Amino acid sequence: MTKAIRIHRPGGPEQMVWEEVAVGDPGPGEARVRHTAVGLNFIDVYHRSGLYPLPALPATIGMEAAGVVEAVGDGVDDLAAGDRIAYAGPPGAYSEARLMPAKRLVKLPDGVDDRQAAAMMLKGMTAEYLLHRTYPVKAGETILFHAAAGGVGTIACQWAKHLGATVIGTVGTREKAEIAAAHGCDHPIVTSETDFVARVKEITGGAGVPVVYDSVGKDTFDRSLDCLSPFGLLALFGQSSGPVPPFDLGQLAAMGSLYVTRPTLLTYAASRDDLLATADALFEVVRSGAVRIEVNQTYALADAAQAHRDLEARKTTGSTVLLP
């Protein structure tokens, strides 16, 4: 037996229960992992609340963790007991130990510690696909990234700056503006004080930006479109403020033949080869020092409900790790 955070019904943080669960031996293609650090992400809130329904309840939430392989099942020949690993999905990370499909595990290289890994796999690989594949950012371009002081934002701003882009980022407070600026954001915009659309137009001389990366959703969607130049792309990769209401696609034509996409890491890292390539690209920029992974908050895993309250109240910055 081991312990895990489970939900028996969708709802608020109070639905998260710290309880005993059974973890058996790994079957074919599986590995049993003992967690050393667990990442906190907004998708965990979506799973807990039922916005993204889980296939069956009760269930353990959590998409991201690092740990050590305890045992492997038949057919697993590229992992062994004692290997340091990390992963980003499927759900079940809020646990002391669990069984995992071995093909979703990535070996950790020297120079990346467990807390860093737990803080960066989902967020960092999200930044990789957004900046390199959803819209490949080129040197000299100016881009807009919402929630620039958040977990994905602080990684993406650094990475975009490393690629040679000028980065505009939105944040909620002046404190978060300082955090964004320290992580590669050239123009932090405090949305409670400044109209971000007007500021983007001012920075770009009225031209707008070729891409907006938006994890906020309902509260920013319409105005994100207003920031785009003709043929621009809005990459909506989250909805922390709620889902975007039904939208008239004819507006995209009227605003300059714009594009909108709703990408997910699940698709971009669906194959084993894509997963490893994405993780390797992340490890490379972290080990080179181009992207710093900083854990700004830690909570005991048993206190995950409080971590969720703080995340939803926008009290956290950068990455947060839960410790079993």
Structure, described:
- The protein is built from ten helices and 16 strands.
- By secondary structure, it is α/β, with parallel strands linked by helices.
- It folds into two domains: 2-121 and 293-323, Medium-chain alcohol dehydrogenases, catalytic domain (Quinone Oxidoreductase, Chain A, domain 1, Alpha-Beta Complex), CATH 3.90.180; 139-262, Rossmann fold, CATH 3.40.50.
- β9 (142-145), α3 (151-162) and β10 form a beta-alpha-beta unit.
- It is globular.
- The model has no long low-confidence stretch (mean pLDDT 96).
Summary of the model, kept short:
Helix content is 30%, strand content 27%.
Supply database-style keywords.
16 strands; 324 residues; alpha/beta; Rossmann fold; 2 domains; six-stranded parallel β-sheet
Percent of residues in beta strands: 25-35%
> What is the CATH class designation of the largest domain?
Alpha Beta
Cα gyration radius (Å): 20 Å
Output the number of helix runs: 10
Q: In terms of topology, how is this protein built?
A:
Layout: E1 2-7, E2 16-21, E3 30-39, H1 42-49, E4 59-60, E5 64-72, E6 84-88, E7 97-101, E8 106-107, H2 114-134, E9 142-145, H3 151-162, E10 166-171, H4 174-181, E11 187-190, H5 196-203, E12 209-214, H6 221-226, E13 228-236, H7 250-254, E14 259-261, H8 265-268, H9 272-288, E15 295-300, H10 304-312, E16 319-323
Parallel strand pairs: 9-10, 9-12, 10-11, 12-13, 13-14, 15-16
Antiparallel strand pairs: 1-2, 1-4, 3-5, 3-7, 3-16, 5-6, 6-8
Helix pairs in contact: 2-3, 2-9
